[in-house]
Amino acid sequence: MNEIPITSIEGFAFGHADNKEAATGCTVVVSEHGAKAGVSVRGGSPGTRETDALNPENLVEQVHGIFLAGGSAFGLDAGTGVMNELEGRGVGFDVQITKVPIVPGAILFDLMVGDEQVRPDRNMGKQATQNAFLNRPFLKGNVGAGTGASVGKLLGPVYAMKGGVGHYAIEVGELKIGAVVAVNSFGDVVDPATGNCLAGAYDRHRQCFLGSEQVLLKQMNTASTNRFSGNTTIGIITCNAALSKSEANKLASIAHDGLARTIRPSHTFVDGDTLFAMTTNEVTVDLNGLSYLAAHVVEQAVIQAVKSATSAYQLPAYSTVTKEG
């Protein structure tokens, strides 16, 4: 099992676009020739587009792009820009009079930082798609959908830390699999290998983590935690494994284990945690081993997201807190 750049998984192109001043952005994974795809929504407050198309009982077998965006539900407009750019390139489901790109997506809530009146729109979605085709560097941290992301919001923004976008990929023989994750969680991000908190609800004066799970338990009967501050972790698994549409959906579901290992608590009523899986459908592999790897790359992408983030918008980042400690 060797780590590889996620951009080396053939059949996919990866792009970001963002507005740093407004603290929001969009991330796109494009499959010009189509990819089998599935989705799993586990959070209680999701914001998604075209996820019904991925239901195995429905007609369409391939998607042509998947987007992740900030901006809350307003950010779903970015998908229109992705579609427009792909249609202009002749990419999509052939309906004879044109080609209709199938572009599911999910959004996260980042309106608490930057300019809440500026959201990812069709122009930003178009730009992210163009950047994917141009093979622009696919960065981590405060970029794309992770530009305004934050974590540990149980007690509000005064105790929150910076989230971001992370990606991680590996190869095992002919199999290549990776994940892109935008981390904007209600809970804390924990390294499962050590049990150490990397980012989360943080007391800046005492320079210590508060432990979101412990705080939740203490306040069970008061309902005083800031449960409506806006959250959601969203991501995309990309691979070349041979899968049916049903298996792609199951893979996305199992990959949520990677979120559960690293985000505590995860999948809450105020998170919209959503993972997509997309594959070029080439390499026959054991599905149980593939499922383990899907959860693993999601786990590592979450860790990369917070470790790559930098302090911004009055939110401290992992690198800042580590130096303080």
Automatic annotation (TrEMBL):
It holds the Pfam family Peptidase_S58. InterPro entries: ArgJ-like_dom_sf (IPR016117), Peptidase_S58_DmpA (IPR005321). CDD domains: nylC_like (cd02252). Belongs to the peptidase S58 family. This is P1 family peptidase. It comes from Halobacillus naozhouensis.
